[in-house]
Hints:
Layout: H1 2-32, H2 35-45, E1 62-63, E2 71-75, E3 81-84, E4 86-88, E5 91-92, H3 101-106, E6 108-114, E7 120-128, E8 131-138, H4 140-176
Helix pairs in contact: 1-4
Amino acid sequence: MTRIVRxxxxxxxxxxxxxxxxxxxxxxxxxxxxxxxxxxxxxxxxQPSTSDSTDAPTADDVDLAVSDATFxxxxxxxxxxxxxxxxxxxxxxxxxPGVLDQARRTGTNHVTWQTADGRRFATVEQRAGDTVVxxxxxxAPTERRIDQLGLLILVAWVSVLAIVCVAFxxxxxxxxxxx
Length: 179
């Protein structure tokens, strides 16, 4: 009976280690998705003309419905988009109420924003005077990478548990043999 308890404890420890590995990896990947938007928000917010209204489409525009590229949108004091490159349905993207409030209060904010059609974006909001600059990028590449790494961790976990089971079986057979 003590062998079963010992091998069960090993299986639980292995499972906890692999679950922890997955959680840490997922967190690192998700936080890494904020890096490019944070740099872009900082760059745009540091420019003196962040509130210039240029709602006309440009060659640099990012169609958020299909593109994974980084984008930015500048919002005025009333939270209306006034300039930027992030477009949904041929208009500058508007975020849900409240997304810009934290940036106005504390200077910066990081959120995952999801559009009505289910596309998810890592966004960083930064206050720039009376305006707020939102920069973001699609989470699709990050989520694909997390899925691939998760599958690799799952395969490794199953392999290690199989080795644990084989070792348990070998110990059981060898212990049952008369000496």
